[in-house]
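2024-03-11 09:14:02 INFO queue: dequeued item Replication initiation protein, len=440
2024-03-11 09:14:02 INFO validating residues
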Amino acid sequence: MDSAVKRGMGCARPVRLRGRKEVVHKATGESATVYDSGDEVDGQTYVRCGDRRASVCPSCSHEYKGDAWHLLMCGLAGGKGIPANVAAWPCTFATLTAPSFGPVHGIRGKGPCRMRRDKPACTHGRPLWCGKRHRDDDSQVGQPLCWECYDYVGQVLWQWYAPELWRRFSIGLQRELAKQVGLTMPAFRKACRISYSKVVEFQARAAIHVHAPIRLDGADGPDGLPCALDLSTADLEDAIQTAAANVRVDAEPLRDGTVVRLRWGSQIDTRTIVDTADRESGRVGRVVHPEQVAAYLAKYLTKSTEDFGLPNRVRSVLHARRAGASPHALRIIETAIRLSREHESYGRLASCLGTLGYRGHPITKSRRYSVTFEQLRRSRRVFRSKPAGLDPDADIRELLDDDPPEGFEVVSSFVYVGRGYLGLDQAAAAVRSAALARAR
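2024-03-11 09:14:37 INFO prediction written
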């Protein structure tokens, strides 16, 4: 296989860099080159693109999915330096959804979409019922029954303020738990810490919903003693229901002075996470296994808005239309562009068209929930350089792969050259490498 493909390791569109890495003595300034891209056959360094989307780069997406699984799993069952006793602490899998912005076509089990005996119509003359049994690949699923009745402004504003809704929910959750044990907020924080990981998934109606494994730790996080307060998983789930139902955010006034009040949807779901749950049945009940949760969330992290026909970056409605975006997604983009021009508070909406107004990250976590992506990637670099020197059970939170001798520092200077392979033979070899990786 071509050396460039080996360095890209099957990446579909690797980043090409040119530069060097040097070790410099801090006192004298004396330096020694430890790597130079000029030593490569084509004078360039190939770095994986790292794209999480399977539709863009299957190889990097597969690696990202594995890292996400480990990040989530370590927070639920321990590993890679996180103590295994966290598996016995109160923990639940919470799902928070968006409210309704209007009726849409959907899949209702084996029954029809929206069967109504009276067969009503909206004010625009369109039927508010549907007797069709939609399949998973039906393009109508998620589309409004009447696009003129649908609250596109409300959905775009909700997507924009979703990170703020989550912030207020996390504060409200602490308050509810503190109220349950009769403590003030400062006293509660000294005795208990809420750790979580938050994953965002797009529903068929192009609105996000939030999945979050939430765990109760002691004051020192996963490395210390468990929470000493009298709180069970049931108490945690009750507090989640109450906190989510009470969250309200008032959006900045629109041009006509209207203030839209935003909240979470009424469908708030919690499922207890225990390592004794059945993970082989394939069914997801009220009690779930940590591996089920980690696998479910890692799978959806490799997807974005491509199901709506959108590229990663959307510049305009015309750009989205040419890319094959659905009519529903196009109307959301039109609304976001209009709002970005009406109010300075929504100016950055124009840079979030590819995510339909959502400005947050696909996955975030509290500081002490688990290991980080950077720590996982660092351990992989160490393993590739010296596989026999890395203990599989090592605490990767303390791992350093570029630790220079005392008195020295590592200085890297690379410039961006381009993206992708320079020849068709390299690209074909990368496709073969990605296919072999999937087969294995």
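2024-03-11 09:14:37 INFO annotate: Residues 1-8 have pLDDT under 50 and may be disordered.
2024-03-11 09:14:38 INFO item closed
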